[in-house]
Each structure stands twice: as structure tokens, then as C-alpha cells.
Amino acid sequence: MEYIDYYNVLGVDKNATNKEIKSAYRKLARKYHPDLNSGDKDAEKKFKEINEANEVLANEENRKKYDQYGKDWQHAEEIEKMKRQQGGSQSYASERGGFGGFGDFQGSDFGNGDDFSDFFHSMFGRSGGTQGRTARKFKGQDYNAVLQLNLTDTLQSQQQVIEVNQQKLRITIPAGLEDGQVIKIAGKGSPGHNGGPSGDLYIRFDIHNNTDFRREGANLHQNVHLDLYTALLGGDTLVKTINGQVKLKVKPETANGSKVRLKGKGMPKYKAEGQYGDLIITFEIINPTHLTDKEKELFTQLKNLRN
């Protein structure tokens, strides 16, 4: 597997903060997004690299492993286990007159051009294992992908074909997904080594809110303007929901900032078929403007009555 400098891909320094990494990712993702570069294979490749880099560097644990092990960061646990098995004093490589103990390894650079992947094969693979050793199985590398959707795309479960590492996959996208949520598709990563299991595919969903609602979990929030007369005397008003309009009865003497909860008018609940959140309405009372002389007279009469 070719080494890719994820910091260089995002154009950030190795000491960049998580905020700087996120900002760089969003800027590049917009620039190379397939919707803006239809048919451009170079832009498509760049977009994949950007997403892959973000999945590694935006995760503190993954970034730490990457900084230490380079492209073999997903094998960090296996590498550390081998170091412990070797007692930290003498590695298989040193027994062969190689390049010293595990303590000499820096990232994915061994100093003589070899990397961890080649080392795995020489140590446990078909071509260089020591006598009496059996080939050790390693799980394949996990793949990471980002799928961008609109909020309205998550109102119903749907199937979609995505391309990951030049492989087309048909996946089911559950209704009710939230922004940043990650789902795992087992066995759709890189093939394993020496008969080991394939890696997994992790898809993170970048969900753009293309509505006027504010989302909190499965609940939606909306501010609704209410004229003074309806607020004082009561009446009916039309309210927009995520699925269309409904007529809502307003109680007399409704105060500014009053809330009404519409049960089941929110987002579908994730992996809970037939269950929905609520729509929470907050009334904003709008005072009349440009009053006529007659209106001013009537309001004055009302003021005097109240006093």
C-alpha cells in the first residue's frame, strides 16, 4: 500500500489543531466535490484522498497511531503485540542481521526503505518466516468514507450505490441518521493478510440541513410568527411541518414565546420503524405597524379600558 501524507493532502502542518484540520477539510471538500466536478477523475481521486485524510487526522486516536506508524497505523495493535512478544530487546529482524530492535522503528520508515507491511510479510508471510513459525493472519485495513446527504434525504430509508476504492457497493441508508453519525459495514474493507478477515467499511454521514427547522435528535424546532389579533383572541394558523402544512388551533391570550408540541411531527427515530420525534413550535407575536388613525383610536380606547 502506497504511503500517503495526509497532512500534505489537507495542506496543514503536522502540529495543526483539530479545528484547523476540520476547516481545511471543509474547504477542500467543497472545491473537489463530485457535484462540482462532474466527470473529472482527478477531482474524484482528490476528493477520496481528502475524505480519507480527514477520517484519520480528525480522530485523535487514529491521528496518534498514524503519526507513529504511518500507513500501517491500523496495524498498531498487532505491532505493539509483536514488540511485547519480542520482549523489547531483540526483534526478528535483528536475529536475521537486520536493522535492530523494535525500538529503532520510526513511523513507517525503518531507515533502509522497508515498512511495516513488508516486515509483516518477511516475518510471518510466505517468503521469509523463520523455521518453525506459522504464518500469522492479519485483518485487512479498514476503509473510511464520507457520504453527504440533505436532511430531507433521511426522512425515509433508502438504498444507494457508492464507490469505495474502485468498488461499487449498494448500501441501505437508515432513516433518521444524524450529522456525523458513523455506520459500519463489515467485511467491505481491504482483504486480509495470510487468510485473515477483510477489514470493515466505516461511513460517516455529513448531513446538510436544507430546511428551516432546527434539529435536536429526533425532535424539530420552528419559530412561527403570530399576529397580535390571533394571539389575543385565538384562532387558527397554518404551520409548516417536515412533511407539509397542518392547521393549528391557537388559544386566546397566547403569550409571546409560548411553545406548542406537535407529537410525531419530527424526524423518524433511527432504527425505530414507525416512531417519530416531535415538532416544537415557538410563537413569535408580531405587532401591527403603519396604524391608521382609526386603528390608533381603537387601541387608545382599549388602553383606557384596561386602565
Could you walk me through the main structural features you see in this protein, from its secondary elements to its overall organization?
It is a single chain. This protein is an alpha+beta fold and 307 residues long. The N and C termini lie far apart (83 Å). The longest helix has 17 residues, at 41-57. Strands 6-7-11-10 form a 4-stranded mixed β-sheet. It has a 3-stranded mixed β-sheet with strand order 1-5-4, with helices on one face. It has 3 domains: 6-124, Helix Hairpins (Orthogonal Bundle); 143-208, Urease metallochaperone UreE, N-terminal domain (HSP40/DNAj peptide-binding domain, Sandwich), CATH 2.60.260.20; 214-306, Sandwich (HSP40/DNAj peptide-binding domain), CATH 2.60.260.20. The protein has helices at residues 6-10, 18-32, 41-57, 60-69, 76-85, 92-95, 116-124, 228-233, 293-306; strands spanning 143-150, 158-164, 167-173, 182-185, 201-208, 214-216, 219-227, 235-241, 244-250, 259-262, 279-286. Helix 2 runs antiparallel to helix 3 (41-57). The chain is elongated and about 95 Å long. The chain has 9 helices and 11 strands.
